TrEMBL record:
PANTHER family: ATP-DEPENDENT DNA HELICASE SRS2, UVRD / RECB / PCRA DNA HELICASE FAMILY MEMBER
EC number: 5.6.2.4
Domain UvrD-like helicase ATP-binding: 6-282
Gene3D superfamilies listed in its UniProt record: 1.10.10.160, P-loop containing nucleotide triphosphate hydrolases (3.40.50.300), PCRA, domain 4 (1.10.486.10)
Residues binding ATP: 27-34
Residue intervals of the UvrD-like helicase C-terminal domain: 283-552
PROSITE patterns per UniProt: UVRD_HELICASE_ATP_BIND (PS51198), UVRD_HELICASE_CTER (PS51217)
Catalyzed chemical reaction(s): Couples ATP hydrolysis with the unwinding of duplex DNA by translocating in the 3'-5' direction; ATP + H2O = ADP + phosphate + H(+)
Record's protein name: DNA 3'-5' helicase
Amino acid sequence: MQAILDELNEAQREAVEEVRRPVLILAGAGSGKTKTITSRLAYLIGEVGVDPASTLTLTFTNKAATQMRERAMEMLSRTQTSLVYPPLLCTFHKFGLLFLKFHMDKLGRRNSFVVIDTDDKKRILKNFGSELPVSLVASEISRYKNSLISPSEAWAQAEQKNYKQIAKLFEQYEAYLAQNNLVDFDDLLVLTYRILEENPQLCAQTSERYQYIMIDEYQDTNDLQYRLIRKLCSTHENICVVGDDDQSIYGWRGANIRNILEFAENFTDTKVVKLEKNYRSTNQILAAANELIDHNRGRMGKVLESTKGDGKAIVFLESSDETQEARTIATKIRELIDGGVNPKEIAVLYRINALSRSLEEGLNREGVSYKMVGGVKFYERAEIKDLISYLRLVANPHDDFSLRRIINRPKRGLGKVTVDKLLGGAHEARMSMYDYISKYALESVSSKKAGEALVLFVEQLEKLREVANGATYEIIDALEETFGVKKYYSELPDALERVSNIDEFYGLFRDQIKQNPDLSVDDFLNELALQSDQDQIDTESIMIMSVHASKGLEFDHVFVMGMEEGFFPLVGDGSDIEEERRLGYVAITRAGKELTLSYSGSRFYKGRRTELSKSRFLKESGVCEGSLVLEKTTSFKKGDLVKHKIFGMGRIVEISKVGREFKLKINFGGSKRDILASFVEKI
Ligand code: ATP
Ligand code: MG
């Protein structure tokens, strides 16, 4: 065990060894907060002898949970401890899922519920046919739920007509979820809280079960999470939380910074630990981060010193447009990899997902393989959602929502008119659509052909359900054989990509069953719903992601794109400059050795090209002046084949700079000409 404590500095060790009262570690980026609670978990189990099952460690992303689990296990393997079961270390939402799996019946609902994601939620809301923008309705409902406001309370509070309408939709939505036994992300916490609140005895049992609670990134907890934590701590206050007020970036989602600032008042006899050394970033990177965040008011204020030496100067890249920006970043990344840098030590971050498209093009051109975190997620692609819907129906045929999605996919002659008719009929008969179709397929629709298609559809689904009841692993072949989803997509546009997605999904499913032969379709689906895309990270590729998704991660080489006013900081409706600055702080502090900040003079965005000025954050972090490396970029290289409007194709033989532009010497079939870079196109 000593080995674990030896890796820590004194303050970190103090926090690890304090196991009898609440502990708050409030410290800046890269100071070892996550390392400290990971060590504390290992210490509790390996040294104090705490039963792993009495610990609960909560994080915000699956990636963080996985990483922490691996590290804790590695630490434990160095001690004599033999583990009976691994400690529970997961996201808040996963904890909610596990809890509801056992206790949903306390709300009079079956424990075999299905978890839906944001996209599902929007589709449900869309089907209610309101004129209001569906994303507004979805986010308002989420806000209500997280504040534990019921639909009738929302109605009573609403002053404007729109909000009355949202409250009505909220009511309709909740009824729909209950009817179909669906659970959305917010419910994972809301319902868990409700059950604990309504069942004091269960609450006390649960709290006694988890004797030691640890929470990472505590600055981003919201009111509901706080209340849940209080329930979990109702019989003890053995809680250790870590966080950084300067990294609070979920204000827009209801995170309440007061949770961390008032922790010591909320929990009795709290030990407060400060960590003041940064073990991640070089001095230059840290100085830029500190200087930037110093422009915020109302901070706790913290000391943070680098232990990594001065390091390299921050690079400032200036490009004329997003294409050039992407090409330059891609070329630089290629050089790093060719120079022996491990791709997983490289990341490109952006403030908004829309910037990823140009970047992806650049990376593809340069042949740099990357994993994207966020954006159009794998599980949100149409073909994958179809497969998931089929599997959901196998698990629960009364899931009207999934049934509607695939009833005519692949096409079986059941158009909107027929579906609406079935929907109306089922509603009137107070049956699930599936039951209704099973019973009245032939009578319920006007055409004989449609009726027959329905009969066949039900038969096919029944057959599939039988297969699933026997052996889960046979379901994929049976699904494809019966419904031919892959075949269907192989005849549509983008067939190649879609079919390879389907194959990947089938592969994933088989893989899971190989690992756990007892896995039911139900379990598989619920796990899927919880997978944040951070899980897709693999080791062969560089990573590209939004700043939000990068929280808690670290990379030797970080590129931050889009350092322009309007993009970073994002300005406009509801944006908060101090939260933007904290995002800037998070972005910069992800970097260990080298940081590149990239500015593009213009971007094509929302249908038009816009000229952009440099982000104020460049100045505020001292990057636009001082000892930085200034690089004007060009994506052209000697030897590139280029095309000119008049001279046609030629090859670049020389590149030089003239003022703000680049001059290329190009060999057009034997005659060399000097041409400005902006007048030719790369092939
Ligand atoms: P963030 O605020 O970004 O989440 P953090 O405070 O959680 O950062 P960690 O990720 O735990 O910081 O640690 C940052 C890096 O410093 C990690 O690579 C970690 O292994 C290393 N580190 C932490 N403490 C020490 C220490 N005492 N000695 C050496 N390295 C350390
Ligand atoms: Mg951390």
